[in-house]
Amino acid sequence: MKVIIVGCGKLGSGLALNLSKKGHSITVIDVNAETFKLLGENFKGKTILGVGFDKDILEKARIRMADALIACSKSDDVNALVGRVARNIYRVPRVISRLYDPRSAEIYRSLGIQTISTTTWGVQQATEMLSYDQFDSLLQMGDMEIVRVEIPELLVGRSVNELIVYGEIQVVSIMRGNKAFMPTRGTIFQSHDILYIAAYSSSLGKLKKLLGLGQKGGEYR
Fold it and tell me: I need a labelling partner for 2 at 20 to 30 A (CA). Which of 17, 97, 133, 197 fits?
């Protein structure tokens, strides 16, 4: 996976090193060349000196080829701008922004940008956000599986009840922004929700149909 990281502080450098070790292609952008020292001499990725929302810098980082961008500078405003440019202009599939002010979370989400906060938890959370496909089996217990899935657009605005099949499929948790909660049947799905669903292995095909996965002309990956 090709990942661009804007900001090379503790969070940005930690992510860069973590993702690089996992075999991903990493490009780090920062306005201060001194911060690149946090990456160490053995960092195998690319570093670019410049402003993260400068289109020339982003083009130099080959943003049109990027699978993900993480904006983790020290400024919420910069992170929001970088995220918006990546999402709206370059259509980067996954965009994550560092959040210092939790009150801004809803604004970030309305822009289609996931958020992370605090350095230690942020590295782990951002890595996890980038490390799974839209439909990912987490745990198998006999004939039962727990799967994690990013909500397809066709289900945004619809209720949890539409994904429940009595005795076969149950939505057990939803991750929304930086918080997880147990939904009710009437909970309405929102864009960028991450669902944790319990289902029998024999019902996974039915679950994928309910999610709209694997349909010609509308497959979600």
Answer: 197
